[in-house]
């Protein structure tokens, strides 16, 4: 009997067949994200459209956090101790609304990171909120008009310089 890829037949101590599903990391990522569009080099514009639709369908509040940022901004509060030293305390979200906004930001950031190929994760993991992460992705992969013009010029030069053997 043929066993589908990712499925493995094993026998327990009593000789009973057990079907065990094995998934590699990429398959697990794909299954848990329900067709999250993955950004590939040179496909930023199409990915941008797809990721926006994905977030809007999944939970519009997540896309809102990406576009407008998280309105909760942690503020450091300085206190002076009796011995004259001062300490800073960064307040965490307190109200239900602040907690929801922070949760949405964390979820949106995580989903954006999952939409990147593994080779780009270390580069973009440094951005701590969804809005700045998305802006960095856009700058890196989307570029501005000058960057796009330079890329087109380089491609044209590569095409013009390309030569193949006549055989």
Sum this structure up briefly.
The protein has about 170 residues and is mostly helical.
How many discrete domains?
1
What's the multimeric state? single chain
Q: Could you give the order of the helices and strands?
A: EEHHHEEHHHH
Shape: elongated
Low-pLDDT residue intervals, each spanning 5 or more residues: 19-33
* Share of helical residues: 40-55%
Strand order of the largest sheet: 1-2
Measured by DSSP, the beta-strand proportion falls in 5-15%
Mean pLDDT: 77
Tell me the major beta sheet: 2 strands, antiparallel
DSSP strand count: 4
* Number of H- or I-type helical stretches: 7
Blueprint of the fold:
Layout: E1 7-11, E2 17-21, H1 25-33, H2 44-58, H3 60-68, E3 76-80, E4 86-90, H4 96-114, H5 118-124, H6 130-142, H7 145-161
Antiparallel strand pairs: 1-2, 3-4
Helix pairs in contact: 2-3, 3-4, 3-6, 4-6
